[in-house]
Amino acid sequence: MNLLRENTSSAKTWNLVRNFFLMVGCYFLYFFALSIIKIIFPDINFSEYEQTELQELIKNSPLKFAFLAVVLAPIAEEGIFRSLLKPSAASIKFFICTIVYIIGLMIIPKEAHWALRYVLLALFLGFIYYALGELISKSAFSKICYFFHKNYKIIWIGGALIFGFVHIFNYVDVLQINFALFLMIFPRIIAGYFLGKVKVENKNLIWPIFLHAMNNGMAFIFMLPQFFESL
């Protein structure tokens, strides 16, 4: 793991870019290995697993898709999977707010305008974040941080694995796993590893959020032709 010699914004920005290209390089290795696996196991059926909801969303509302993929998903998912990785008191509060956000999405009717839903939730979460700072003592936050710092490797690798497996629901409605699905979510496990890596190295949650946004932005660019084909 790369340990930054300088605790500066420029050093952290370079480390972000470096990890992005390392992650992309691992993607290329993955697709190369996948092509070999397809030759060895020609009966593996990937066609039955399609990201139909995402494909429909980018065709019908590319602006909403871009907002969800490049802005909201990186913030929410990093809040869940990386905020407890070598955390500060602020990132622990952010983790709790992210859980409240997920619950809020389940409660607020889907019929409400999508932008209104997220604005209302953001305002509410701002209040929750402030309240947590007032209700939980600094000593309690210090003890919680110490526990998670001590076990950061488990949280790093475990978070990467869970991050990958959660994305199974991009392809199926009910939790299941088989060899084909595992191969399809493996790039997310790769991403989860590098998102955790940049969090540990840069020591702030904003950096994996940036890396996540860059990753999803790259995927969005590759998916854009589907939108133009539908015009």
UniProtKB/TrEMBL annotation:
The CAAX prenyl protease 2/Lysostaphin resistance protein A-like domain, residue ranges: 62-136, 153-218
Sequence intervals crossing the membrane: 20-41, 92-109, 115-133, 154-171, 177-196, 205-228
Annotated keywords: Membrane, Transmembrane, Transmembrane helix
Family matches, as InterPro entries: Rce1/LyrA-like_dom
Domain of life: Bacteria
Keyword Amino-acid biosynthesis found: no
Official protein name in the record: Type II CAAX prenyl endopeptidase Rce1 family protein
Organism: Christiangramia antarctica
